[in-house]
Design goal:
single chain; 422 residues; alpha/beta; Aspartate Aminotransferase, domain 1; Aspartate Aminotransferase, domain 2; 2 domains; 7-stranded mixed beta sheet; 4-stranded antiparallel beta sheet; 14 helices; globular; disordered N terminus
Length: 422
């Protein structure tokens, strides 16, 4: 299997050319190093992706040429920073195909986005006896905020079961939807299993009962072509650092009618229209939810990351990663005693596994000595690990810059692990 996908978009004319993974790799300086005397094989992209030069250069340019606060200054630097910040919002709007830039809220990441919805939408709409519906495969960030809300409101958290293949049990989902359900919040793509959930079906069924839906898009945003209007989701959360952008920046998309009705998440500067000791009036969208000085450089660099991903094309990236996932799955299954956790029919970019008699942390440590970076642990999905009766998995996750040779290095490395432990 070659590392060449059918096509990618690049350049101002978006011409069709070969997916040139080696050219892409040249854009990521961090990849060109050795770890423990071996070439780095970075397969921990579900935890965080590396950053292309285009993103790094934008960060440097902002801090060396345009560093100023936004929205408030009349001087040139503030004007330039504001234009770049709001320009990034428009880029994200187009990336998600949101109806308006008013629906794009900048936050610190997926975790803050979900907490914002739980605190603001949940605080205003959830009452005693109501129910919030999540799934067994959720990241802790899509469990704990709802637990906090349910505890405060005396509401109930309901959970969609997961099959042995790592797929949502949709018949159970149908049964769990009820007149008490106030929100469904599920992962678009599982960080621990790689399962791509049937989110359009989930949204359609929830909306038939008047129930809004939040999608945790932390993993999907860099792997799935997104169109929030086609999905018809009410909220969509994503993190910049999993989209080849900086850490500490993320996005909450919300339908304007929901956001207009929701109270602010935090109070402070820039989220107000006027303040007196008697009364405060709030700013218009999206600023009502962006209190204080934001991560200005991070927002602008996220815009650069979106440009970079768009220049290649998510369809081409997804096709390339699908080839890598298929190759990796075939390779690891040749290792005696290895079991893949998560065999859903619809998967993307993430491969979790356990090896008989070897703790995932030991497995990851031995691979690290070979220059191969994977993740080992419960992946902030402890209820899911309990569902499968395991404490942890080893997880290899792929990005646009990974190669078939790196996949083969993983398989060879796992063979060496097997030899060490016998």
């Amino acid at each position: 299997m070659s590392g060449t996908s059918e096509a990618l978009k690049t350049g101002p004319r978006a011409e069709l050319v070969r997916f040139d993974v080696e050219a892409i790799r040249r854009d990521f300086p961090i990849l060109h190093q050795e770890v423990h005397g071996r070439p780095l094989v970075y397969l921990d992209n579900a935890a965080t992706t590396q950053k292309p030069k285009a993103v790094l250069e934008v960060l440097q340019r902002y801090y060396t040429q345009d560093n100023a606060n936004i929205h408030r200054g009349v001087h040139e630097l503030s004007q330039r920073a504001t234009a770049a910040y709001e320009g990034a919002r428009e880029k994200v709007q187009r990336f998600l195909n949101a109806a308006s830039s008013r629906e794009i809220i900048f936050v610190r990441g997926t975790t803050e986005a979900i907490n914002l919805v739980a605190h603001s939408f949940g605080g205003a709409n959830v009452r005693e006896g109501d129910e919030i519906l999540v799934s067994t495969m959720e990241h802790h960030s899509n469990i704990v905020p709802w637990q906090i809300l349910c505890d405060a409101k005396k509401a109930r958290l309901r959970v969609i079961p997961v099959s042995d293949r790592g797929e949502l049990e949709m018949e159970s989902f149908d049964r769990l939807l009820s007149p008490k359900t106030r929100l469904v919040s599920v992962a678009h793509l599982s960080n621990a299993l790689g399962t791509l959930n049937p989110v359009k079906q989930i949204i359609r069924k929830a909306h038939a009962r008047g129930i809004p839906v939040l999608l945790d898009g932390a993993q999907a945003a860099a792997r799935v072509k997104l169109d929030v209007r086609d999905l018809d989701c009410d909220f969509y959360a994503l993190s910049g650092h999993k989209l080849y952008g900086p850490t500490g920046i993320g996005v909450l998309y919300g339908k304007a009618d929901h956001l207009e009705a929701m109270p602010p998440f935090m109070g402070g500067g820039d989220m107000i229209s006027s303040v007196t000791f008697e009364r405060t009036t709030y700013n218009k969208l999206p600023y009502k939810f962006e209190a204080g000085t934001p991560h200005i450089a991070g927002v602008i660099a996220l815009g650069a990351a979106v440009d970079y991903v768009d220049s290649i094309g998510l369809e081409a990236i997804a096709s390339h990663e699908e080839e890598l996932l298929h190759r990796a799955t075939e390779g690891v299954l040749s290792i005696p005693g290895l079991r893949v956790i998560g065999t859903a029919k619809e998967k993307a970019g993430i491969l979790s596994f356990v090896m008989e008699g070897i703790h995932p942390h030991d497995l990851g440590t031995i691979l690290d000595q070979q220059g191969i970076a994977i993740r080992a642990g419960h992946h902030c999905t402890q209820p899911l690990m309990e569902r499968f009766g395991i404490p942890a998995t080893a997880r290899a996750s792929f990005g646009m810059y990974n190669t078939p040779q790196e996949v083969d290095a993983l398989t060879e490395g796992l063979g060496k692990v097997r030899e060490v432990f016998g």
